[in-house]
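Lecture 7 notes: from sequence to structure.

We start with a single chain of 444 residues. Read the sequence below before looking at the structure.
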Amino acid sequence: MYILQKTMRETMPQTPIFSSMLGSSCSGQVQPDMGERSGGDLVFQDGNLISGSLEALIEHLVPTVDYYPDAKLKSFTAKIIQLLKEWTEAFPYDFQDEKVMKELKEITHRITQCDEENGTVKATITQMTQNLILSLTTRNQFQEIREKFRQPVTDKGTILKSKPQAAQKDILSVCCDPLILAQQLTHIELERVSNIYPEDLMQIVSHMDSLDNHKCRGDVTKTYTLEAYDNWFNCLSMLVATEICRVVKKKQRTRMVEFFIDVARECFNIGNFNSMMAIISGMNLSPVARLKKTWSKVKTAKFDVLEHHMDPSSNFCNYRTALQGAAQRSQTANSSREKIVIPVFNLFIKDIYFLHKIHTNRLPNGQINFKKFWEISRQIHDFMTWKQVECPFEKDKKIQSYLLTAPIYSEEALFVASFESEGPENHMEKDSWKTLRTTLLNRA
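Now the structure, written as tokens:
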């Protein structure tokens, strides 16, 4: 696992550090093509390192009396500082350990001795250290005050009434414009992904290895940011289902379904695929899907288009095409509105999972499979680029407050509300309805 984390960090494609040290410009030599070997048993393709032993890599990077990866000592020092800067920014939790922090201080102390005259290096290192401490403090505070997500409620007083409350508040009473709601959902999404860092995503790989090796990983930082983001997706899906199922009148319920279809479509146009998928998932939950009388009145052409984009066949080929289009749009965009790319997070995680599981860490000859780590790092780098986009939409606290705090029903409560709206149609549904109603009443 140490080798995996080390190689992953050393291959994060953020700046030209390693491309210059390992690529075609290294020491003025042209690196060999695929299948040819440079000194030290490293294999390159198109100037990129694709395999080799860890020992050979270290030998290639570490200067000696007779060899420098870069001809100029000052240039090499600058690259070491840049490497430490990126390491502390991307993986700050590595430095929570006192030993690692001590080693960092020792390394930076040696580097500053090379620049005692003008103090430029010292100032850069001081700023880097301050940023690291601030990052650790901020993230620890976030962990301590992490959001307590809403627990699904079972409101018998509301659900088990034949008539709805006169002043019952719903999403349409707060926001009736699909575009504005989609924009507020995008605000929430970007706020949540802003708390996800490369090391959180690397914990996925770490967790997989620990499961494979049956090792206890109690020392590994918990991926609470990933759990929080996943919980948000589930909450949004359940909120959509709750808003639909608790509406008693069919005409109003039809309007609610069509409203969420329009919201999902606006999310798609923005590039907010995660909210779009959550909304579609909520409408596909059984308590909503069984409302046949309601769906018969819904203009489903728009919904069919959305489901086409999220068709799971061929490994979500249609979605991946749309995501690629959004990513290309983001790269050439002049405005923040066109830069937004929020992938379906569960699928993004699965992609990392399969990249790790399908490709081995080492090749048959025992060398490290750097090509695998380049691909994983590319995926994570794309996500980190997308999460840095500032939301261009004006924040509406009233709408966001409703989205984040409105009560959501449990699965059984959704079924009860669904049966209250449209009665059971067969013996199986009648038995389920009777059992659920009895269960909820007995809890009074």
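Residues 1-39, 147-151, 154-166, 213-221 have pLDDT under 50 and may be disordered. Keep this in mind for problem set 3.
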